[in-house]
Design goal:
The chain is α+β, with helices and mostly antiparallel strands. About 65% of the residues lie in helices and about 15% in strands.
């Protein structure tokens, strides 16, 4: 089993260059820091407009160290306005002409916050989780690699998003389970249970999305993507989003059930498959309430502005909005996948733990390979 996982990882990294060959041209950017800001009012037609004239020191590029002046228009809409302050780092869009280089302000540089938050998370994960924390971190990195360097290119070159998402999720589940749980029946049953639950979520999503006539264009990001890639199947992408959002919670439930049954059997190996299954279901029922609630709250938290908007819209209109139905559908399908994961994993774990002879235990194979 260990050789199989290593082989899968080698296959993944072998395919990365293939899917990365035809990369879209990325518009260049540089980092600068605001040295000075002045507000200027000017007449445009019958209206008085306001702009910021900012002096920005370039921190990168061929003109590193140079100070340039850029006008930053303010529209009064907080969604579009970028209000600059002295000392703030900004991301600059760069366009090279025949004779000169033109700069414009793209956004404020926020990645520094992401870096220290990520370092804090990694430190806590390793400190509390020890060896398993390190394995968890590795599995997170591999999952991000799978999504960014494999899933996204697969969708962009025309592979069905649902099929691509299921493949990536199954690979991610297998890698995570075996890294964190070890090479044993526990990890195998959790992997199989989670994979079948994700397939169930995919099938249920397909039925729900088509019967509800969802367009796949429920927010601004999807509309921007449509402008750039109108050839994509946005209904399938919506189904893929639901599957990916479900993955983490399903893996948590699957490993919890499989680990519980494995521990029960290690204490009392006289228990039958039925007794182990009942024990797993009893634990699973306790998990279902909190995990399903957690997933629902994640979607509700992310949709809070949409919920606040409901106070100004007729309920009949609100509950039938494309975006609202998409969010509710995602939450319900994700929770359904969690629920179905419990009996599936409990059954598989009970069968594997009880019926696979001890001499063929994957953990024994691991010990023998050392």
């Amino acid at each position: 089993m260990k050789k199989i996982i290593i082989f899968l990882i080698m296959i993944i990294f072998g395919f990365l260059p293939v899917f990365s060959e035809e990369e879209a041209q990325v518009l260049p950017s540089q980092i600068g820091v605001v040295q000075k800001v002045e507000y200027v009012d000017f007449q445009e037609g019958d209206d008085i407009q306001t702009k910021q004239t900012a002096e920005i020191k370039l921190l990168e590029g061929t003109e590193k160290g140079a100070v340039i002046s850029i006008d930053n228009m303010l529209t009064g809409n907080p969604y579009y306005d970028i209000k600059l302050k002295k000392g703030v780092k900004v991301v600059l869009h760069v366009e090279s002409g025949d004779d000169d280089i033109t700069y414009s302000i793209e956004d404020i540089k926020r990645s520094d916050t992401l870096i220290w938050l990520s370092l804090l998370f990694c430190s806590l994960l390793i400190y509390v989780g020890k060896k398993k924390g390190i394995f968890s971190l590795v599995s997170i990195i591999l999952t991000c690699i799978l999504i960014y360097f494999l899933l996204i290119p697969m969708i962009l070159i025309g592979i069905n998003p649902v099929l691509a998402s299921i493949i990536i999720c199954v690979l991610s589940t297998a890698i995570t389970m075996y890294l964190v749980g070890g090479f044993n029946q526990k990890s195998t049953s959790a992997t199989i249970g989670c994979s079948l639950s994700l397939v169930f979520a995919g099938l249920l999503s397909f039925v729900a999305v088509n019967t509800a006539h969802l367009t796949g264009l429920s927010n601004e990001n999807e509309i921007f993507l449509y402008s750039a890639h109108p050839e994509l199947n946005f209904v399938a992408i919506t189904i893929s989003m639901i599957i990916l959002a479900t993955l983490g919670a399903v893996m948590d439930v699957g490993m919890s059930i499989a680990s519980t049954i494995n521990e029960i059997y290690s204490v009392d190996n006289t228990k039958t498959v039925k007794e182990l299954f009942i024990c797993g279901m009893n634990v699973g029922r306790d998990i279902i309430g909190t995990m399903a609630n957690t997933l629902i709250l994640v979607y509700l938290g992310g949709s809070l502005p949409l919920l606040l908007l409901a106070s100004n819209i007729d309920f009949q209109k609100f509950i039938n909005l494309n975006q609202v139905v998409t969010e509710i559908t995602s939450a319900i399908i994700g929770s359904s996948a969690i629920v179905i994961c419990v009996p599936i994993t409990a059954f598989i774990a009970s069968e594997l733990v009880k019926n696979i002879p001890q001499k063929y235990d994957f953990s024994k194979l691991k010990d023998n390979m050392k």
